[in-house]
User: Fold this.
Amino acid sequence: MLSRNKPYFDIRDLAAALSFFTGSAKHYERLFAKAFGYTYALHFPYGRDVLYALLKALPSKKKEVVMPDYTCMVMPNAAIKANHTLKVVDVSLEDYNAHWEHFKKAITKNTKVIVPTHLFGFTVDVKKIKRNMAKDIIILEDVALALDPKIGHDGDAALFSTGFNKHITTLQGGILATDDKNIYEKVLAYRNKAYRKPSCVTTIRRFITFFAYYFVFNRIIYGLLDYANARFGLLKRIKRHNYSKIMLPKDHFELFSKFQTRVGVAQLKKYKEINKKRMRYARRYHALLEKDKRCGKSFFLVPFDKHSTYSHFPIRVKNRDIVRERMKAKGIEAGTTLDYHTSGLPAYKKLKKCPHSAKIASEIINLPNYPSLKMKDIDRIAKVFLDAI
Assistant:
C-alpha cells in the first residue's frame, strides 16, 4: 500500500535520534535561521504555538486575528485560546489561497494580526497585502506547507511547521522566524516564562513515536496495518482532530526533547533534496494529467507554479469518495488535506460562511508526492487516478 504521506526518514535521522547526550535547541534554531535566511528563529512544540505565543507576547488593545477560512483548524484554535477574536476570509478557487482582495474587506481598526497562508506551497503576494494595510498590523506568514528560503520574508514574521507530514519533520514542532528584533525578544521572553522543558514521560512518548513513524510507513507494514484497521478497527483509538472543540494539545507548553533537535538538524540537511523531488513529481503529474480531456471538467488542477513547494499535490474532484475508494482498491491511498474549512466546523459555526472554501473542502484530494517515491510510482499513481475518475 502506498500511503498518502510519509516522513522522509533514513539512517541519518536514526543515527541522530540515537546520539544520546547531545542536541541543542539553540544550535538547531541557528541552523534553521541560516538555512532560510532569517536573523532569528525560535522553536515551539507545535506550529500553532507560534501564533499563540506571538499573540500573547505582543499585548495590544486590538484583539482581532484575520486568516483564511480554508486553513488547518489548529490556527483558529490557537487564536481563540490566546483570548483573541477571529475573522475568516474566503479563498480563491484558482490556488486555494486568500489574497489582498479577500483580506481587505475583513480588516478593521481592531485588527492586530493577519495570517496569509501559502497553502500547499502555492505563494501569496504578501508585499501587496503589506502595501495596502495599516503599518501597525502584524503580518504572520503561514509557511507551514511552503518550506523555501524565497517564501516568508515579506511579512513581519513567519510560521514554520515540522509536523510528521511536513517537508521536514521533528515529529511535531514549529518555528517562529523573523528579522524583527523586537518581535524576537518579546516572543523569546514569553516563551521563557510560559514554556518549559519536556517531562521524561513526554520525551519517552515522543521517542516511541519517532520509531513508530520510522518503521510503520514501510509499504508492506503499512498495508498490513491498513488491512487490520479495516477488518478489526485497530486504529480507532488513535486521537484525531476534535472538530467540535476549541483546544490545544496537552503538551503544547513542553518544548523540544533533545533528540528532536538532533533529528531536526539531520532533516535540515535534506530540505533541498526534498523540495527538488516534490517539484519533479509535480511537473510529472501535470504532464500526465493536463492532457486528459477530463481535466477542467471532471477534475481540476491548480495551474503549475514553478515557485511552489508542492507540500501536497491537490486536485479537486466531484466524486471524491468514490475516486479514493477505487484508488485504494489498487493499493494507493489518496489524502484529503484539507477536507474541512473553519466556518464549517461545529466550534466555529457562527463565523461568516465562505462558499469557495466549502467547495474546495468537499472536493479536495491529494496524490502522494513524498520524496521516497520513485518516478515510476508517480506514473502509476497518475494512471490509477485517471482510471478511478
